[in-house]
Amino acid sequence: WLDTLYTKIRAKAPSAKVVVLSYPRFYDTGTWYPCPGLSDTKHKKINEGADVLDSVIKGEVAKYANFSFADVRSRFTGHEICDYGSEWLHSVDWTNIGDSYHPNADGHSGAYLPALKAVTG
User: Alpha-carbon distance 115 to 121, whole Å?
Assistant: First the structure.
C-alpha cells in the first residue's frame, strides 16, 4: 500500500519534496536494569520489527523522485522506552492508548525535527 500512497502523493503534488521519517527502535536492549512488562526477547522482536518496517519503507521511498528517507534510529539511542528519565517514547498508556509507542514532545524535538531539517535544510 506504500506504493499506492506515494503514487497518490506524487500525483497531487508532483514537484513536492517528500520526506518519510523512519520508526525508532522502541527498546534499549543493552541495559542492565529491568524494563517491566514485556520480556527482553519481545523487546528485541519489536525492535527487529521496526527495522524491517524501516527497510521496506526505505526501499519504497527510493523508487520516487524527490522522496527522501530520514532515519531517526540513531537519534533515539539512549532515549528508548525504559531509559529511565530520558525516554523520548511513550510506553503503553492505558489511559490514552493513542500515545502508546509514539514519541513524546522530546522525541519530536530531539529526533524527528533534526532528522527532517537534515534533509530539508
Answer: 10
Q: What is the mean pLDDT of the chain?
A: 93
Q: Which three cell numbers stand for residue 25?
A: 527502535
Q: How far is CA 22 from CA 80, 93, 111, in A?
A: 15, 22, 10
The residues facing 81 across adjacent strands are 27
Q: Which residues contact 51 (CB under 8 A, 6 or more apart)?
A: 25, 73
Whether 113 shows a pLDDT value over 90: the answer reads yes
d(C-alpha 121, C-alpha 108), whole Å: 17
Q: What are phi and psi of 68, to 5 degrees?
A: -130, 145
User: Which residues in the chain belong to E strands, given as ranges?
Assistant: 18-21, 67-70
Task: Yes or no: say if 57 and 69 are a contact pair by the CB < 8 Å rule.
Answer: yes
pLDDT at 37: 83
pLDDT in tens, 22-66: 999 999 887 777 788 888 899 999 999 999 999 999 999 999 999
Round to whole Å and give the CA distance between 6 and 64: 8
